[in-house]
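Regression test case RT-17, inverse folding.

Input:
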């Protein structure tokens, strides 16, 4: 079954206020922090980088869906 989602639709398996953008960002961040060559510590700089980059990836994924 193929399902289509809009960027602002809430998903039942996520937090009640999470969007598809948040979901994509969470998946991107999960991938980044699982790779020590990208994120190798929990310093404020590394954490801020991961959060910012995750949303950049999410925005790119949403744009690719257009």
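Golden output:
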């Amino acid at each position: 079954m193929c399902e289509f989602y809009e960027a602002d639709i809430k998903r039942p398996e996520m937090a009640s206020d999470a969007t598809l953008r948040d979901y994509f960002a969470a998946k991107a961040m999960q991938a980044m922090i699982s790779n020590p060559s990208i994120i190798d510590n929990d310093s404020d700089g590394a954490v801020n980088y991961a959060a910012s980059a995750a949303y950049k990836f999410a925005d790119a994924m949403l744009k690719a869906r257009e």
